[in-house]
What we know:
Number of strands: 4
Distance between the termini: 29 Å
Number of helices: 14
Largest sheet: 4 strands, mixed
Number of domains: 2
Strand order of the largest sheet: 2-1-3-4
Helix content: 55-70%
Shape: elongated
Order of helices and strands: HHEEHEEHHHHHHHHHHH
Structural class: mainly alpha
Amino acid sequence: MNGLWLVADREIRTRIRTRGFLISLGLSALLVVALAFVPKLLGGKDAYEVAVVGAVPVAAQDVTYTKYPDEAAARKAVSGGKADAALIDDQKVVSEGELDQRLGLLLESAHREGKIKASGLVITPLQVETGATAQYQSVRTGIATLLVMVLFFLLIYSSMYVAMGVVEEKGSRIVEILLAAVRPWQLLGGKIVGLGLLGLLNLAVVIGGGLIAASATGLAADFPPGMGGIVISTVVWFVLGYAFFSALAAAFGSLVSRQEEVNSVLTPMTMLMTLTYLVAYFAAVEPEGTLARILSVVPPFSSMVMPVRTAAADVPIVEIVLSAGLMVVAVVAVLFAGARVYNRAVVRTGARVKLAEVLR
């Protein structure tokens, strides 16, 4: 095991200081922080200032009324930016440019309520009760959608690093020197573990940046109960998904000796990951759909679909345990098969090695 950890330490020290890794780490944090501010930027104003001439209407949510002596003064306040709109004698609304749609609805509602009260009618508002699932459903769907993108980006990014590292060592024949000091499984395992820890660091930055930005923008108050469980689930499924796809990436990468051939040799894996991403995206919108429920327990689709379903809806614990168990079995199988291919192909330089030939 010492050899494995030595290789892992080498991978971490080599990659963490590269400009590409640092830039990608910073961009990941900036992207998730920017996404947390998007709802606030697109949600319009939180409060409105309305100049009033004549009787002050009934109170309206997020609206502050300021009395003015005449219409000219109220119009001047609007044109000068001191008020978002002016209400003249409870008859007309004056605004600079197009009236904010939400403000218009608030003023219309206040006007209607004032007329009803003036007529002596008393209307008791309806009592609305919603379950916890319905209350947080839109937020959970948003979290699940973001989770799809994060997992897909980190899984494909980390797996590609594994494949490129294998090809780089094979093409330069450094792998022959390394194999004189460590066993093939230690070299492969160390590469997967080291780059996986860097992937976890990237995931931690994304999650941490997102939570901090959500707290700063007030979105954290709308988070559903059990956010800690969603975070832990994301980390666990990322580890399982990364182990599966990185073993595939290492196996396919060991078949070629040039960086130019990496994309073509990884085509089957990237197609599988893209299909998994599309299913997971569908599951974020329809977490209880038949397709989402079936594929959330089928490896490797479960690596992205199950955490997304868990974030978007309440999933029975039996399905989660079954999905995790099957994924662990799949990971072990792929690790053994990938190690076998890697062991036989990584020292064969030159032309591309055929997978069927290696397996035989």
